[in-house]
Specification:
This protein is an alpha/beta fold and about 400 residues long. It folds into 3 domains: about 240 residues, LCP protein (Aminopeptidase, 3-Layer(aba) Sandwich), CATH 3.40.630.190; about 50 residues, no CATH class; about 80 residues, Alpha-Beta Plaits (2-Layer Sandwich), CATH 3.30.70. It has 12 helices and 22 strands. The protein has a 7-stranded mixed beta sheet with strand order 1-14-7-2-3-4-15, with helices on both faces. Strands 19-18-22-20-21 form a 5-stranded mixed beta sheet. α1 crosses α9 and α2 runs parallel beside α8.
Length: about 400
C-alpha cells in the first residue's frame, strides 16, 4: 500500500512538537533514522517553497517474484505499490496519483509491467515512471512491507468505515460493518486484499476483487493515515515510529533534515479536503499469456496533465450522497437529507444504518471524494469526515449520529 507515506506521517508529527528547537531535533532524528539509496541521484528542489514530486514505493520481497523476470533478475524485491505524490507548500495541498503496478510499458528495449523495473534497482523504477508520465521526480521514498504494521501501530491505528461486514480469506481480513479502528495487521490485510468480499443480504459477495480495487483500498489506508495522524496517540508513538523508520524506510540522499522541516511546516494543517487522490485510468489487457493493464486515453493523459499543473484531477459535479439513520431517532435521516438537498447536494437515498448507536455524524468517502465529504461537513456544521468504502452507486455516505439536529 502507500506505505512510503510514512515520511509525510512523521513530519506531520514533527510539527506537533511546537518549539523550534524540538522541531529541528525531530527533523534530524527522522533524517538520520532512514536508509538512503547510494546510486540514486535526483534533482530535488533548489527553492523549497515550490511544489515537489515524490515517488512513493511500497516494496515486498515475499510475493510473486515472477513479476520481475521481464526486466531482468529479481533482486529480492518488487514494487508492489507505486504512487506519485505532489506537495504544494504554498497552500499545504497534496495530490496523489497511483500508478497500477501491472501497467504495461516499454523500457530498455523490452515490454513488461512497470513494477518489474524495480528488480534492477530504484534508479530504473524512477526512470521508468518519469518516462511514462513525463514528470520530473524530486525525491524517492520506499518502505518495506515488513514495517507497515509497525508504522500503523505506532500512530495508534487508523479508522476506516465499511458499509457491510467484509473479509478476504487470503489476506486474513475480517471486519464488521461501520467504522472500525484497524491495527497494523488488519490495515495491512485490507490494503493487500485482492479477494475482497462483503456480506450482503446474508451472502458473501465479491467486490472489487482485483488489482484496481486493491489500489483503491490502499488509497483508503493512505488517506486515513494522512488525515488521522494528528491524533494524540500518534504523538506518544513517535519513538516507535522512528524505530520503524530506521528498519524499513529508504529515501534518496537529497531528502535531508532541512527539507523534512520545510515539508513538515507546509503540511502542519493538512485535512482530508487538502488531499486529492486518483488512480491512473487503465483497462485490462492480455498479451502472450500475460495480464497487464494499459492506459485509457485521453483520460490518462488528462489526469497526468492536471497532476503536473497542480489542478484538480477529479470532479464531484455528479456526486451522489446516501444518508443513513445511525442514531435510531425516527426521521433523522430525512431531516439531514433535506438540509443537504437545500444546500445543493444530490441525495439519492435514505435508509437505516447497520447500527443505531453513532454519537457523532460520520461523512464517509473514498480517497477520490474527501473534498466533497468535507464540503458536506461544512454545510451541515457538524460531523466528522471518515475515509471508507461506499456502495458502488454513491460517492459519499452520511451516517447521522446523535449530534445531528432532530427537527
Amino acid at each position: 500500500m502507500k506505505r512510503a507515506v510514512v515520511i509525510f506521517l512523521v513530519v506531520t508529527n514533527v510539527v506537533v512538537f511546537g518549539a523550534l528547537g524540538a522541531v529541528w531535533w525531530a527533523a534530524n532524528k527522522v533524517s538520520s533514522a532512514v536508509s538512503t539509496v547510494p546510486d540514486l541521484s535526483l534533482p530535488g528542489n533548489v527553492d523549497l517553497s515550490q511544489p515537489r514530486v515524490f515517488l512513493l514505493v511500497g516494496s515486498d520481497s515475499r510475493e510473486n517474484l515472477d513479476d520481475l523476470t521481464n526486466f531482468g533478475p529479481a533482486g529480492g524485491q518488487r514494487a508492489d505499490v507505486i504512487i506519485l505524490a505532489k506537495v504544494v507548500p504554498a497552500d499545504g495541498r497534496v495530490q496523489l496519483l497511483s500508478i497500477p503496478r501491472d501497467l504495461r510499458i516499454d523500457y530498455g528495449g523490452r515490454t513488461g509491467r512497470i513494477n518489474a523495473t524495480f528488480g534492477s534497482g530504484a534508479a530504473d523504477l524512477v526512470a521508468a515512471v518519469s518516462a511514462e508520465t513525463g514528470l520530473t521526480i524530486n525525491h524517492y521514498l520506499q518502505v518495506e512491507f515488513g514495517g507497515f504494521a509497525s508504522i500503523i501501530d505506532a500512530i495508534g491505528g487508523i479508522r476506516i468505515t465499511f458499509p457491510y461486514p467484509a473479509r478476504d480469506l487470503s489476506s486474513g481480513l475480517e471486519v464488521g460493518a461501520g467504522t472500525q479502528l484497524l491495527d497494523g495487521d488488519t490495515a495491512l490485510s485490507y490494503a493487500r486484499s485482492r479477494k475482497y468480499e462483503e456480506l450482503r443480504s446474508g451472502e458473501w459477495v465479491s467486490v472489487d476483487a482485483n488489482d484496481i480495487g486493491r489500489t483503491r483500498r490502499q488509497q483508503d489506508v493512505l488517506l486515513a493515515i494522512l488525515t488521522q495522524v494528528d491524533r494524540p496517540a500518534s504523538i506518544g508513538g513517535f519513538q516507535s515510529l522512528l524505530d520503524a523508520l530506521g528498519e524499513f524506510v529508504t529515501v534518496d540522499s537529497g531528502f535531508d533534515a532541512e527539507e523534512i522541516l520545510q515539508l513538515a511546516w507546509s503540511m502542519r494543517s493538512i485535512s482530508g479536503s487538502d488531499v486529492e487522490s486518483m488512480t491512473l485510468p487503465v483497462r485490462g489487457f492480455a498479451e502472450g499469456g500475460t495480464s497487464y493493464v494499459v492506459r485509457v486515453e485521453p483520460e490518462a493523459s488528462t489526469v497526468i496533465d492536471a497532476f503536473a499543473a497542480g489542478t484538480a484531477m477529479t470532479t464531484d459535479a455528479q456526486a451522489r450522497v446516501q444518508v443513513q439513520n445511525g442514531n435510531g431517532i425516527p426521521g433523522s435521516a430525512g431531516v439531514v437529507a433535506s438540509a443537504l438537498a437545500e444546500a445543493g447536494f444530490e441525495v439519492v437515498e435514505t435508509l437505516d444504518s447497520a447500527r443505531s448507536d453513532y454519537q457523532v455524524t460520520e461523512i464517509v468517502a473514498g480517497a477520490a471524494h474527501l473534498a466533497l465529504a468535507q464540503a458536506i461537513a461544512d454545510a451541515l456544521g457538524y460531523g466528522e469526515v471518515i475515509v471508507g468504502r461506499t456502495p458502488v452507486d454513491v460517492e459519499v455516505v452520511v451516517i447521522v449520529g446523535a449530534d445531528a439536529p432532530t427537527g
